Amino acid sequence: MLQSHLPHLIIIKPRSLSCIRFYFFIIYFAFLFNSNIAFASNRIISLIPSSTELLFAIGFGNEIVAVSNYCNYPEDKIKDLPRIGDQTLNVEKIVSLSPTILVDTNSIHKRYENIFKRLNLNYVNIDIKSHSDIPNVACWLAEQLGDKTRANAFVDEWNKEISSLNSNNLSKTIKVYAEVSNNPIVAVGGNNNIDSIISLAGGKNVLAKQSDYPLINSEMVLLTNPEIIILIYPDANVDSVKNRLGWKRIKAVQNNHIFAVDQDLFVRPGPRNLQAIKIVNKLINKVIEDESN
To answer: For residues 236 and 231, what is the distance between their CA atoms, to the nearest angstrom?
Structure first.
């Protein structure tokens, strides 16, 4: 192949060492440019925290050149990276960083897609509606970034951990109420990633028949009488929940089974959802143990 592309170089007979070196480098670089070897790594901009966390989990973290203002994990590896905005993106800054790909999750920044197209920027979106989507999404994203095999270790470990959780035979199903905002009160309904987390952990989401994240009133919770209340938002105050009008009749309140958890583990669809599943599973086992004593 080399000879057919550079016949004039092959027949040249250099007369000095410097000439030999010169022609060697010409042939060497010509070979590389005519092969499938890629020199440049990806220049990835992550538009949302869940994308950042997944990129690190599948081995592309060192190719991220910028992240969103909200990204905070893994803190030691992203703290010095440029920030490109939050809900509103700084498109000018994004362009200045010459990215090869922009990674979004669940179409949070879909409204920018046409702008990115006009600017010749490669925008991709990953959809995660349930924990079961995560391994497939990880493989798909790694493929978009040029090396599907990098996701293998993450997927193998994920599946192993999930299988281990599924093998836990709980003696009963525990009713779970999960809340993502206290003002107004917004709960976790069905068909979303947090509902999936609760289900896989062995719990029954008492509002699974509601919309994704319904506004609720006290009567809705009183009627379902959950055994666990999980508060998934910053600065959650357990005592204020206990003191809501009528809530003292709820089993979870009576037994002090109200728990504030790390919001990021639950609301960001991605690899750390495994920690969220384990947390809920542990809480459920605690409630079962408490009720049996």
So the answer is: 6
